[in-house]
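Batch 3, record 17
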Amino acid sequence: MAFDLFLLEVVISGLMTGVMYALVALGFVLIFKASGIFNFAQGVLALFAALALYDFLSEDGWFFSLFGFTLPVWLAIPATAAIMIFLAWIIERSVLRFLVKQDQIILFMATIGLAFVLEGLGDLLFGSDVKPLNIGIPQGASDWALDTFNLYIEKLEIVAAATAAVLVIILAIFFQKTRIGRALRAVADDHQAALSVGVSLDKIWVIVWSVSGIVALVAGIMWGSKSGVQFSLSLIALKALPVLILGGFTSVPGAIVGGLIIGVGEKVAEVYLGPYVGGALENWFAYMLALAFLLFRPQGLFGERIIERV
Amino acid sequence: MFYRENGQFKSSYRADQAIFPIAQDRWFVIAVVLTAFLAVPPFIDQYWANAVILPFLVYALAGLGLNILTGYCGQVSLGTGGFMAVGAYASFKLVGLFPELNFLIVLLLSGFITAGVGMIFGLPSLRIKGFYLAVATLAAQFFLVWMFNKVGWFYDYSPTGMITVRPIEFFGVLVTGPEAGSAAKYLFTLSIVIVMALAAKNIVRGRIGRAWMAIRDMDIAAELIGIRPLMAKLTAFAVSSFYIGVAGALYFSIYLGAVEPVEAFDINRSFYVLFIIIIGGLGSVLGSFLGAAFIVLVPILLKNVMVGGMGMASGTAGHVEILLMGVLIIFFLIVEPHGLARLWQIAKEKLRLWPFPH
Amino acid sequence: MNDRTQDQILLEVDAISLSFGGVHALTDVSFDIRKGEVRSIIGPNGAGKSSMLNVINGFYHPQQGTITYQGQKRSQMKPHEAARGGIARTFQNIALFRGMSTLDNIMTGRNTQMSKGLFWQALRIGPALREEIENREFVEHVIDFLEIQAIRKTPVGKLPYGLQKRVELGRALAAEPTLLLLDEPMAGMNLEEKEDMSRFILETNEEFGTTIALIEHDMSVVMDISDRVVVLDYGRKIADGTPEEVRANQSVIDAYLGVSHD
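Prediction for the assembled complex:
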């Protein structure tokens, strides 16, 4: 009985981490779906969002030194969202519009450059020390879970899972039902074709990167509340790759499922296999898992099968 | 006026296919090589060697390797750091196990070992392409670094986890270790890099290079005209890893002297080399050198300007450096995706017309 | 056009059916190609002509049917086997290697004829160099034949459409094919370019004896240069014979004029 419980806790802990991964992966999927760009800077965007949020909230931020007061949480979050939208606009104007017809690999490398820019900027503006992010999400273990199931689950993780679920639903509706959503799917398929039916590529990209930026903000809030706002947040971007491999690069539900599988897989491997090999399995397990997956199902669980034509 | 092909007619295919068909190019390169071999050693000092020239050579070699895989064959790889580690640790263990072995042989063997590892991690490339392949190479990257960190045999169970190079002689001259002279290190590394660059240039000009580029440009068509993707891709991984392995061995043995896997060979190293070939020019031997020069020199320049000239704190300067690197990469990708090598070509075109305006 | 009556069959496809998901690209198609002839495959858009070539080439694998090439019967072709067996082709949407020059592109066509390994390539003196020069000579013949000497060193991405098609033909010819598959080699060309292309195709057939399978929409070209014609519509064969026979065939006329099918 106790053994089962332990495994369950590990699995749940993995699921929770998985939700966090999924949140970041979601941002990737959005941008990839709508512009065919694999945005390596997604993790840094989450970091940047969290840094900006912290700045609005705390007394050692620029906002405070400029205006003399800090924003309450319910104002700070929209303010940060506005910053992310502004950032999306700048990115579109200064980078994306010049790279419209380039190869995917060039676009990918441009986003690596972008990641560096944002990282350097973030460090310069906000400093590279770890910042605690407290926006009022309940901390500590969930008493309800402890009492009812004798399981240790953090309240934060429950909130994160709920938020992710809500986000996925909103995004799914957005893509399937709205006019803009359809336009986004057109753009993802073929830039040129979308342009020729009058879809304004610039506007679309600003919208997508804004939405992605807001998703990044949510991810940043969750991760930041959990372990403080710090540079390692941006490394999560790399972890998102295996998530996307599993889930398929273009699937919103896939990002979630992929995230969960990776999260659980990692945790379980670390706990049960780790001791035999000296630990730190988490460094590479996700990638190996993704690799194994790729060999058998290159398009991921939910991705689209690519049929090549000559 | 001076840079003209007029009168330089080729009367054989052999002459037409030479590496430098234009006479002025030939003389220029010979001059550069002679200068490098004869004029530099008397003046080289430890600072220049360690800060600029040795890293330049080593990174040029690594860039060459990655260029073969990514620039010529189109297979994206983010595992360069990991493969450099393989070369470094291979050389470390080989010297430890066979101390009498000629150092050149050690380097070659390190290269071959890395080639083997590279081929294994390259097998997935038969089924997956593009980003997906990048993930496979990431798996290699993280796994290899973890392995060299955890498995004690690799670092002779040293408590710090670091490996330090033993002083090794090459035909009586010390080339590794703190006592080795800068000139010796420099000449040794230079010779290796030049020979390998020549070999690379030969390979990419021939049948195998063309097969690689065909796979890069349109792999389906390549397969349909009889090029075997399996052979071509694995060869690319093998040759590329060989070069990167030797670069890693040199990086450890001659340039740094002591390394610790996480810091020296992590994902940042992979990005570093990737940037070298993007900025230098994908699919260009010259580009690998230009990119390496750029990437090695610019941070030094920036640091001197910012910390020395503007009095910035070195931490801040580090952040600005990252920022500027990102800006430069984006700039290059937008303005000249084919990198410095293309700019060089354009300059030569202009030189043909000089001093006439058009 | 020639009136050789060799009955030696080079390629035979028998009851080939090919589908992708629910789409039936080819249904029960059978025909043969005789050695040395020019065989045209025609039909309205979407009839499955390119798919047929892809099956012969080994790019698509049919769900049913067999392919007999040079006497060997198979249920599917592997691209590599096809290439080494002497089948070369051009593509509807030009599949040249854009990063390389004309010369290099055509040299890749020689790939199956070249074999010197990595070590010699790296050294480039001796065997590899000799091989390179020999093959360069052959490729130069192809270049002369197609009259593209001036654009030898030009990166193919910079060439106009018509010249690209010619370079692609050159790459196929460089492989010294026994069977040459041409997928709409004259698409998008003006009259003069078409005449040039027809001339090259005919010369290849007459001088080198290369068997040619040709997909083409221009009826006058088809009638002029083909020995025999096979007509596809909605993935099925609806006619097979000499150009005159096919032209007079009622179902062919219906197919092109768009009479509704049941």
